[in-house]
Amino acid sequence: ADERQALKARIRQLLKEKNAVLVAHYYVDGDLQDLAEETGGCVSDSLEMARFGRSHEAQTLVVAGVRFMGETAKILSPEKRILMPDLDATCSLDLGCSTDEFTAFCDAHPDRTVVVYANTSAAVKARADWMVTSSIGLDIVKHLHEQGKKILWAPDKHLGGYIQKQTGADMLLWQGSCLVHDEFKGVELELLRKEYPKALILVHPESPEAVVAQADVIGSTSQLIAAVQSSDAKEFIVATDNGILHKMRMAAPGKIFIDAPTAGNSATCKSCAHCPWMAMNGLQNLLQVLETGSNEIHIDPAIGKKAVVCIDRMLDFAA
Ligand code: 13P
Ligand code: SF4
Fold first, then answer.
1. Which of 117, 156, 181, 238 to mutate to test the pocket of ligand 2 (most atoms within 8 A of CB)?
2. Which residues participate in iminosuccinate binding (predicted)?
3. Known binder of ligand: residue 204?
4. CB–CB of 73/80 below 8 Å?
5. Mind listing the pLDDT tens digit for each residue in 217-263?
6. ipTM exceeding 0.85?
């Protein structure tokens, strides 16, 4: 514990010395989330991370999350220096949607408006008309559907399927999934609900349909935390990465949080309920990038210039 405190003190000092700001996602180590908050940075969902990074005056942003979050920050602010604790922290959705295959998919359906989830590479975003995050995907697709647009959606099939069902939009879905949320099980959740009949069921929409169907609240990480804050419930069953429990416990001390069931448990299944790539962010590598300035995100400017269009559309829509 002493060593962690010493690391945190050194990180605080370096953030100040380097005029850098820490932007963290709710799934990373709790110490990193606390540091971001204490030092004037932000801890939030992917939409807020993008917005905060773009508007903050600091010229160096340290993004604790996964690669697409650092890339989005760089695309929005090419003049800023974006560092990440580990550049290999990727995402199964990004990995499952290669630029070549995605381009071929778009080429085969030129009549469709291309909407991609934030969890994609810069090159995939460069081909898209719209980028969305989980907190705003539903509203944007609803808007496009009302304008009579047919949609090509990539890469998360569960989020896409959920939005399609809610909006009735004509959506052609790429078949990607998040390896963490894909593990949540509908039948086991039904059994768990019987044990905790008063619990509120909180579900991230990257989860399978059988799990989403049982939700009391469906939303992005920030939206699920807001639900905990505003609810009178005493117990919550949480179907998303368990890194979020750090903030939920802070938001509602004394309340009970129960992990939604997965096929394995955390001892036997590494990716169950905690993202292995989010877990690559730690105090040690955060300190190292601040000391050395290593692990900088670079985006080909030509790709960045194209990719920024679909992100700006989302931010303007959200404004
Ligand atoms: P949020 O935008 O809800 O924070 O989700 C990001 C993510 O990667 C979820 O797995
Ligand atoms: Fe990607 Fe899933 Fe990890 Fe989120 S939790 S970064 S969607 S693999």
1. 181
2. 25, 46, 117-119, 134, 204-206, 221
3. yes
4. yes
5. 999 999 999 999 999 999 999 999 999 999 999 999 999 999 999 97
6. yes
